[in-house]
Amino acid sequence: MPGKRPDPASLADSQWDLVVIGGGITGAGVLLQAAQLGLKVLLLEKHDFAWGTSSRSSKMVHGGLRYIAQGDIRLTREALRERERLLCELPGLVVRQTYLFPIRRGQFPGRWAMTLVLWLYDRLARIRDHRWVSAKELAERVPALRHDQVEGAMSYTDALTDDSRLVLRVLHEAAAEGGAMINYAGAESVSGTPGDMQLVLKDSVTGARHTLRSRHVINATGAWADRLSGASARVRPLRGSHLFVASARLPVKDCLTVMHPDDGRPVFVFPWEGLTCIGTTDLDHGDDLDLEPRVSQREIDYLLRLVNTQFPDIHLTEEDIVSTMAGVRPVISSGKGLDPSKERRDHAVWTQDGVITVSGGKLTTFRVIALDALLAATLIDRQTHRRLLNTPRLFRQAPSLPAGLGHPLHAWPQGEALSEQVRWVLDNEMVQHLDDLMLRRTRLGNLLPDGGATTLAGLRAQICAQLGWDEARWATELTRYQRIVQRFYSLPAPAIEAA
Ligand SMILES: Cc1cc2nc3c(=O)[nH]c(=O)nc-3n(C[C@H](O)[C@H](O)[C@H](O)COP(=O)(O)OP(=O)(O)OC[C@H]3O[C@@H](n4cnc5c(N)ncnc54)[C@H](O)[C@@H]3O)c2cc1C
């Protein structure tokens, strides 16, 4: 990624082969694949890169046991194959992790059903990494877990990542391959016919509008896809929320799947960047999509009840919550009014008025989703699609990122090491606002109390010097950041909740 945000006016001087709208994992994946094909390609992001769902997922690069349980072998195989490739290509950012699925007497699925599922799961991934863990070993590994009725647990592996750092990594790779990108530049409208499309870009920094010309347009705006697709609504926005607590309050070394006592839904409790994460929920998101999603009091009560039932001696309360994070799944609706957890999670690509729209799917399968979008745009044919799907390496440029940035199992560094990482990020990653730095380039705002206020104060001189901010700009940015943290990443304030 080039260090400086390009001048939006200069983007209007070019005739693009492809403009990709949306800077989440899907748009970033399309940009990278298109750049590797030698196309002149530009990505537009209305807010910040990974501002949408791609910084708010459960951070798992996984096949997804629920898909296999629903009989969706194709989606599971696809996701497992991508998991194994990402583990190989991005060590330190995508990290193999032990998952534990406790089995209790009388509970479904039991030991033998899970053994069968995991045998198939491993086989699809071409590994063998599942085993039975006795009740005694489980008690040693997770002493705080409720142990009545426990027979043992199935142990298997999947992977964890830092989702917004994954998006940034893909964008760095795309830039090294010649792709262009800009944040805080939304597409307001798209018109024309394939081969001769026009887009109106609104620069959020200056408020100016510019008209771009491109042969093709791919709309990769996730939960917002219906706004630009020109077709009738297809996306069903479903919210999922997470709580972060200090690992000392809920210590886990493995990713645990525990069943909610009220509805039997599986919920993960897992270690992430020095904290413990609990999530997720799954419910229709009726809030304004122009605002960042936030956890509701109902979801907090639901997740705390899960923890306090499954870990009876922990007595977790709202006071223990360091931060919260909610995301909106762009789920392609079946139109049948299904229970949210029963809607399928694969992606869809459709074309209307010259715009190719791609939405749904998973973080894990971004490479496959990107190729499907390029195929629909007739930028590749079926043969090339097949060839690229089977190309072992997607990442071939190895841009020089600081080691350890976004390792999902390491706590963020402190002191001089942190200052070095921040220096690199500010020089290389188009940071426009404090929330870009604190919530997506680093995760300090999610991992530290009060959005990392104390650490941020210590970084003030460095940030102002590097970004050329004066006192007034710092004050404006700080107010903006504190408002965002308070409204969208903390416990819901009673007044806002009631509104
Ligand atoms: C709670 C939750 C947990 C999840 N857990 C996992 C998981 O563990 N593993 C997994 O593989 N997947 C997971 N997913 C799914 C995964 O996160 C999403 O499928 C994926 O992030 C979607 O990426 P996207 O790029 O399509 O959308 P987004 O990341 O939302 O990106 C769309 C972007 O488009 C931008 N945009 C909107 N309108 C415009 C416009 N007019 N002009 C320019 N830009 C615009 C938005 O600002 C946004 O940044 C989870 C999802 C949720 C909600």
Automatic annotation (TrEMBL):
Cofactor: FAD
Keywords: FAD, Flavoprotein, Glycerol metabolism, Oxidoreductase
InterPro entries: DAO_C, DAO_C_sf, FAD-dep_OxRdtase, FAD/NAD-bd_sf, G3P_DH_FAD-dep
SUPFAM superfamilies named in the record: FAD-linked reductases, C-terminal domain, FAD/NAD(P)-binding domain
Xref: Pfam families: DAO, DAO_C
GO MF annotations in UniProt: glycerol-3-phosphate dehydrogenase (quinone) activity
Gene3D superfamilies named among the record's database cross-references: Alpha-glycerophosphate oxidase, cap domain (1.10.8.870), D-Amino Acid Oxidase, subunit A, domain 2 (3.30.9.10), FAD/NAD(P)-binding domain (3.50.50.60)
FAD dependent oxidoreductase domain location: 17-364
Gene Ontology BP terms: glycerol metabolic process; glycerol-3-phosphate catabolic process
Domain called Alpha-glycerophosphate oxidase C-terminal: residue spans: 414-473
Similarity comment: family membership: Belongs to the FAD-dependent glycerol-3-phosphate dehydrogenase family.
PANTHER family reported for this sequence: ANAEROBIC GLYCEROL-3-PHOSPHATE DEHYDROGENASE SUBUNIT A, GLYCEROL-3-PHOSPHATE DEHYDROGENASE
Protein's recorded name: Glycerol-3-phosphate dehydrogenase
UniProt organism field: Isoalcanivorax pacificus W11-5
